[in-house]
């Protein structure tokens, strides 16, 4: 019998290190992993059943919703409502925060912010997609419905964050501020098993990930940084390798393992950047910092930004610390846009 440690066992083990922990966070993470298994099952058969493709509606941000965006959103919400550890959820796929009305939910101390399906345009072509989640203590009184203030907290107040990558294997990676740990899903057992304990990102890397189709409208500093990545300096492993999947979770996961940088700056279509501060940038920033890397909007630490609206977008630079430092240097030297 191989020495298998499941995600459930691992969380309980970690919880024992905090004698006053109530187990609520463990139970909340259990609801997330249950929904992840259900979504994983659906994604795996996406080519066979009528679950791929667009649904014909738009979300609050004007994006065409895919059937699986809506499916994943429903499953994660339902799993969290059922376990009574969450008083409300803000989601990329919802206009406003969803408030759970049962008294048991009102008594809960956590709110969750979620990108239920990340990279959803990749579903139809069988490319990796993901889920990203971010957990905070509410600031409003327990026993009452959560308020806007609960959802608009800066990222440094996160209690836990993580993602699931539905890839060539499915993995769940999370942090509670005590390192980053990865679990691979064994579908035959129906369990996430510890496979990557204490994940760290190399300080330097040689992969850069950016949608270069938007080049013309990138800030000067980003254009210069891209040229820097492409220069021939073999002793510094340049030119770097360009890799871009178009699912943040998949691009992030690869760069976390190998060392690299992911960039989504301001563009013509998205003057503030495309990625959402609350559902995408903050949770990834928490994970990358816990892994020894860095996340900024070009000038400011992502987790220090005070959010002012749920669907707020920010430019996003995340990955190996020396690479993020370098792009910040370029943005500082060349702040102009054209
Ligand atoms: P989502 O599918 O949750 O809306 O996120 C899409 C995001 C992110 O996953 C990805 O990195 C990025 O959009 C890709 O954008 P471009 O197609 O503009 O490169
Ligand atoms: Mn979307
Ligand atoms: Mn996304
Ligand atoms: Mn999404």
From TrEMBL:
Q: Which cofactor does it need?
A: Mg(2+)
Please give the pathway this protein is involved in. Answer: Carbohydrate biosynthesis; Calvin cycle
UniProt domain Fructose-1-6-bisphosphatase class I N-terminal: residue ranges: 5-197
InterPro entries assigned to the protein according to its UniProt record, in alphabetical order: FBPase_C_dom, FBPase_class-1, FBPase_N, FBPtase, Fructose_bisphosphatase_AS
Which residues are noted in the entry as Mg(2+) 2-binding?
A: 115, 118, 280
- The signal peptide stretch is none
- Provide the binding site for substrate: 118-121, 211, 244, 262-264, 274
The principal location of this protein is cytoplasm
Look up the EC number in the record and give it.
3.1.3.11
Q: Which CDD domains match?
A: FBPase
Q: Which residues does the record give as Mg(2+) 1 binding sites?
A: 92, 115, 117
Whether Nuclease counts among this entry's keywords is no
Which Pfam families does the protein's record reference?
A: FBPase, FBPase_C
User: Where does this protein reside within or beyond the cell?
Assistant: Cytoplasm
The record's comment on cofactor binding reads: Binds 2 magnesium ions per subunit.
Keywords of the record, alphabetical order, are: Carbohydrate metabolism, Cytoplasm, Hydrolase, Magnesium, Metal-binding
Q: Which spans are transmembrane here?
A: none
User: In its UniProt record, which GO terms are filed under biological process?
Assistant: fructose 1,6-bisphosphate metabolic process; fructose 6-phosphate metabolic process; fructose metabolic process; gluconeogenesis; sucrose biosynthetic process
Catalytic activity line of the entry: beta-D-fructose 1,6-bisphosphate + H2O = beta-D-fructose 6-phosphate + phosphate
Q: Which HAMAP family match?
A: FBPase_class1 (MF_01855)
User: What is the protein's given name?
Assistant: Fructose-1,6-bisphosphatase class 1
